[in-house]
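Exercise 7.
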Amino acid sequence: MKKLIKPSYLILIGLIAVGTMVFQACKKDSKTSNKSGTSTVRVHLTDAPGDYEEVNIDVIGVEINSDISGWVSVSPISAGIYNLLDFANGLDTLLGSAVLPAGKISQMRMILGTRNTVKIDGIVYELKTPSAQQSGLKFNVNESFLAGVTYDIWIDFDAKKSVVETGSGNYILKPTIRAYTNAITGAITGYALPKAAKSNVYAINGTDTFRSFADTFGYFLIRGIPANSYNVLFENTGGYKDTTVTGVSVVAGAVTDMNTIMMRQ
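Solution. The predicted structure, written as tokens, is:
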């Protein structure tokens, strides 16, 4: 004779099974969430110097492309007009920060307004932005960020290469931008003397060239250089001969101090 199971008992067993499945699923999601976590990214604006009196860009927004969450806005953002030449030789300004899922960051984009100008010989010219770039100036990052770690990213404009004269007295902004973090790059610093040489300074390895210049005190800083060995070229004026120092080592996360380099006439 078969033993009958009451419907209420069957319902109880079903509820227990469902509850167990939900509990296990919650545990799995919790482990995944704790493992991935988030990273904090602080975004700075800096510049490689250019031969202009001012290069002003109208920053409206910055976005970061995470492989997990897609495009994420840096918010709050310090929107406004920035003269790129104010941020050379190690100077920068913090535009804002964002919290992202830990993982790979592939791209960034900077969104500009219409108030972009260049100042040459005391005259201010409008810097027009090509229509293809009005939705945002994209550039690659390709970094992997770990959970719980804060990273600094520098958006490095090359002011000299970013301004293009059309030949009719008009100027176009075609930004040359690179981005780097403090986790995978190093820097070279020192003094190029005498100050009268007004040295342009280049760190060169094959086709890779990174540039800065000596300020009014002769001080220079080239930042965002991948770890490697470089030849450092001092391109001088005022009758001083160009000088090259070979085999300057750059280590990730460190600053290589070349101390004082004297130029000869």
